[in-house]
Design goal:
This protein is of the alpha+beta class. The chain is built from two helices and twelve strands. The protein is elongated and about 75 Å long.
């Protein structure tokens, strides 16, 4: 009976203490990868923050595309809500991973146009971007965008459903798919 109590105690301690250590490792790796992205000639990443608590964290960053004059006026703000493992309870059920996250985006600096805002709001509402960091520090990112239709002046624009998954393994190999029927 004492052995069972000790085993249960060790397991519970691991489940409740390890997310703090996992969060620290994830934060370090996350910042390393962002530093590499900052070196890319066509991307500018600014306003980076990473706030970590025991079981979760929040990362924010602002991304600008360089070298394309039409994109100079706007930036993409990303807020990533992270949950730290090794065991994660999520809307999708029980996960065994170092971290799991959901990303929210906003676009700053676009001209104020009613129709453009309407399309972007529909696109944002239909989008779901999630990531998972495996025990080997591989990144699995999934993007789904449900079909949306926008009508203006008897014209219709349909953005068909998009499903994608990309795996970054060993920080060297990208494997994935994108299924999209187009506009």
């Amino acid at each position: 009976m004492k052995k069972l109590v000790v085993i249960v105690g060790v397991v519970l301690a691991a489940v409740f203490i390890s997310p703090n250590f996992v969060g620290s490792a994830v934060e370090t790796k996350y910042m390393e990868i962002l530093e590499r992205f900052k070196q890319h000639p066509s991307v500018e990443i600014t306003d980076v923050t990473f706030e970590r608590s025991w079981f979760s964290g929040v990362s924010t960053s602002k991304i600008k595309l360089k070298g394309i004059p039409e994109f100079d006026t706007f930036a993409i703000s990303a807020t990533e809500a992270l949950s730290f493992g090794p065991v994660i309870l999520s809307d999708d059920g029980l996960k065994f991973a170092l971290a799991s996250s959901t990303v929210e985006f906003s676009i700053d600096g676009l001209p104020e146009e009613k129709e453009l805002d309407a399309i972007l709001n529909k696109l944002k509402a239909a989008s779901n971007l999630t990531s998972e960091i495996t025990y080997g520090f591989d990144y699995i990112t999934k993007l789904t965008i449900d079909e949306i239709t926008h009508e203006q002046d008897s014209n219709s624009l349909t953005f068909h459903k998009l499903d994608s998954e990309i795996l970054l393994a060993d920080e060297k190999v990208y494997i994935g798919f994108i299924n999209w029927a187009g506009l």
